[in-house]
């Protein structure tokens, strides 16, 4: 019974397996035993039995397409494959030598297989890297050529500063390196940090527009800056840009000047008259070391504290000017008087603010003689008169409530400790503020709340009391928060307890441009906010999308004092690099190169050069990145000269002698004239030669009196002309102007007249004369003057025309030493010479048929000479080592 159940279960499981295998959409085929037997017999009948011949359809079919099936079948049968499958010899356990030999063979096989696999993997990885690098270089080149896209809407920038970790490109991508064959690294004693294929930037001009007045106003400051750098003098660049901005005829000039003035105060560029410091000068790269130091270092913290004090000073000075204007607007209500003191001016300001008609209500203010006492202290503090505010507060002590009697103690310590309470006192004050009794909002004095918030340096009071009515402007907002910014003591304070600079910067970025810009009506406002919060890189990045030209000059000012961080790799694609692990870095190279391209397009190469040499601010000889920057700047300068073709203006010529670049070579880390020639002149000349700009190369070599290179260049030009003439290539007008043998002949004659040829290699002079002779030879051949053409080629002494084996060998050896271009022409020159001989021979034959016997003898002698010359040339070809494919 149990066995029957097991069989049933097994049958059921087999059905389930069959159902799982068979697709549901195909119905199963059900046959009985009779049908199965019938189908089996049909299959068996189709099998070829021993001794039967198969049908011969296949050979006939193969024969139709030219294949012998029987022969192929015999060949396959004749193959003995038994050796390929012979069993391996079993090695005895005691045969150590055979075992080692076997292992050795296996190891070799494994090494070959692993090496093959590794080679394939390495190749694929290398191919991927090359593909990615080529694509990056192509993107850089395209984006550099197309330039920067400037969005028309200011709201598109609202998310640029909201979160860290983004690396955005101005192209939604360098200005990368040098394409193969374009400006190879100079052969200076220093190591080359710019390698072939690293950067491509073009300053080629296609525009005919002129510089605007705005360009010229800014350029005047940049030119003076570079001249002061050249003379090693300090220059108040921000003050000068401020004065220049006042002359600009733009609708936002007032806001622009305010931004420049804020930067003057932040940097501390004081006591400047016409660009010169009267006292306490700031040197070039004055803040660079401290600004680039780690954020935890004492020098970096000290610098940020100094810069923050400058930002607060600007806001306080601005408020003083605003106070005077406001008081003057309400003279009758303010009651200022004839000779107002600082305290009386603050009183007048309060009277104007809380005037009866149209002023702010005084219902919740503590008043003494119709003056809000807390407001009096606050206005003096807001104007930057800290000591005066302290004196006034001490005078009001008797009017303070019992709860506020400790205010004078805390306020005195706050003022005397450089606007910061000691840690213990701050913690006590914060505790007291948190214990204030809960009162209705309208019973709190807003001036008093602001003063306590400032002294305690809290981002906001726990009670969250409204104070907007007495501090309505964005300047009030900025000053209040900058006063509350406190350096965190990691051991004693918590992040949530204080308002750090980093926290305030993030708050500003989270609010975004639209919060400060009045929905796009004032784009400069947010830029000033970023400056005041010391976010210089983000400020330039933001302004670059709004007012590019102004952003460039703000960047120059900050870079001059070392207040811009740049990527360590000068080839970074993004305009700003901002990740969570490091502070933001701005691509100063790209900003300047984009602006230089615009100047180059406006036909102002000398002005463009003034901007390019500012890139050397980030160059130095102590670090790899600094040396790389120098090499990259050299490349940019050469590219500017080459693309604008301003050789005489920038490099110089024989007449004017010195160009702009040579004047500023000390700023370019070029020590002497020899290094200048090698880095700038010779590299440019070689590039001109490669690209067929022979006249430009000649003028560059003449500038350095390198006549040996000039002769080599003339020889190359002549060889090029000969090759073009032989090939019958139609030259463009520019090329025809470059390759003019008559001008080359004049240059050679001039050198002979000035006895310059005495300083040149005799072999090169002879080569030049031979090439000039070859030019005449080809011209005569084209004119079908075969007789004179043969005389010229014989006088050149290039090919042998005498049956002297030693002479033939000597001429053949000389051919092997020719330059590549001329050497490529030898075969064609031989062909032309043979055609001249043949054509002249045919002319003589025709002439002899019409002459009397006496002149005929002379012509017969000439034909014999021509045959001998032809034989000499044939023998000469046999001695040539080069493979010259000549078909006569």
From TrEMBL:
Transmembrane segments: none annotated. The keyword Membrane applies. One of its GO terms (molecular function) is structural constituent of nuclear pore. One of its GO terms (cellular component) is nuclear pore. It is found in: Nucleus envelope; Nucleus, Nuclear pore complex. Its main location: nucleus. Keywords: Membrane, mRNA transport, Nuclear pore complex, Nucleus, Protein transport, Translocation, Transport. One of its GO terms (biological process) is poly(A)+ mRNA export from nucleus. Belongs to the nucleoporin interacting component (NIC) family. PANTHER family: NUCLEAR PORE COMPLEX PROTEIN NUP93, NUCLEAR PORE COMPLEX PROTEIN NUP93 NUCLEOPORIN NUP93 DEAD EYE PROTEIN. This is Nuclear pore protein. It comes from Glomus cerebriforme. The lineage of its organism: Eukaryota, Fungi, Fungi incertae sedis, Mucoromycota, Glomeromycotina.
